[in-house]
Amino acid sequence: MSDTDLPGGPPEIARTLIEALPFMRRYQGAVMVIKYGGHAMGDETVARDFARDVVLLKQVGINPVVVHGGGPQIKAMLGRLKIESSFVDGLRVTDAATVEVVEMVLAGKINKEIVTAIQTAGGKAIGICGKDGGLIEAVKLKRTKRDPDSLIEEAVDLGFVGDPQRINTSLLDTLRGTDFIPVIAPIGVGADGQTYNINADTAAGAIAGALRARKLMMLTDVRGVMDATRNFVATLTDTRARAWIADGTISGGMIPKIETCLGAVERGVDAAVILDGRVPHAILLELFTEHGFGTQILRG
Ligand SMILES: Nc1ncnc2c1ncn2[C@@H]1O[C@H](COP(=O)(O)OP(=O)(O)O)[C@@H](O)[C@H]1O
Ligand SMILES: CC(=O)N[C@@H](CCC(=O)OP(=O)(O)O)C(=O)O
């Protein structure tokens, strides 16, 4: 039997593994923060593949840290409980009843589902939220909006939406030398014990910055960042990103995502990438191929 009888068979698999080798060597021991968005985790097969990818990273000596969202799942639970919800610039306005549901869904249900998926894929995972070990110290997020008529900056009250002030990495540092993969729900805690709902992108960026991660990967439900004509862009600079936010090319949930990536590279993360988590093995394609897979956010 010749190689041509084996389309996508052993020779191609071997080539793929060989191509991955230099990247595996380059990333040996590196911390990779993976933001796993609520939209990216919808499908059961994709969720299983995600877990397998994370286990593979750990197996080859990389240190994945998973920070997850769960916006659609929070929406569904709030709907069942008949609690109304609204968003300002991609952030959920969070009152006392809402923050309770957010914590239940994120730190309870979703966090443990991801832990179970990783364990089922043969890895070891430990699920925590920003309260555990005082991981994410937060304060109430301050937001202002300019009134288009008077041009005066007005305060917008988002309720219990948190702004991470300090990331206590000691628990994550301890886990780094072990087999355990941390899975983090974006719930923060105030000095007074108040629970805060933190946008998962923001939490992932703060954690990636504090850990000086090699890469921050933001898994979402689009190919990457799209320009005004809806074409995929492979790289996006700071200046262009800000212009596109101002003219509406980038909107909604993509705004905190881009702001987070910009903040992370400023804080010393080598690369921040937005990629399609619905594509099977998106993480492996990003890390172990020459051209990567998503939109890379750059300074300048
Ligand atoms: N320029 C843009 N390029 C890509 N997506 C965009 C853009 N502007 C807005 N979006 C929206 O941002 C969404 C991703 O943000 P979000 O829904 O918060 O995802 P996640 O739940 O994964 O965090 C996309 O589904 C898309 O509708
Ligand atoms: C303040 C704020 O908006 N918090 C988010 C937290 C979850 C999240 O960010 O989930 P995704 O990554 O799936 O969008 C929320 O309540 O939906």
UniProtKB/TrEMBL annotation:
InterPro entries: AceGlu_kinase-like_sf, AcgluKinase_fam, ArgB, Asp/Glu/Uridylate_kinase, NAGK-C. The record marks 35, 257 as: Transition state stabilizer. GO terms for biological process: L-arginine biosynthetic process via ornithine. Coiled coil: none annotated. It is found in: Cytoplasm. GO terms for molecular function: acetylglutamate kinase activity; ATP binding. Residues 31-275 form the Aspartate/glutamate/uridylate kinase domain. Its main location: cytoplasm. Pathway: Amino-acid biosynthesis; L-arginine biosynthesis; N(2)-acetyl-L-ornithine from L-glutamate: step 2/4. Its EC number is 2.7.2.8. SUPFAM superfamilies: Carbamate kinase-like. It holds the Pfam family AA_kinase. Keywords: Amino-acid biosynthesis, Arginine biosynthesis, ATP-binding, Cytoplasm, Kinase, Nucleotide-binding, Transferase. It catalyses: N-acetyl-L-glutamate + ATP = N-acetyl-L-glutamyl 5-phosphate + ADP. Catalyzes the ATP-dependent phosphorylation of N-acetyl-L-glutamate. PANTHER family: N-ACETYLGLUTAMATE SYNTHASE (PTHR23342), N-ACETYLGLUTAMATE SYNTHASE, MITOCHONDRIAL (PTHR23342:SF0). Belongs to the acetylglutamate kinase family. ArgB subfamily. NCBIfam families: argB. This is Acetylglutamate kinase.
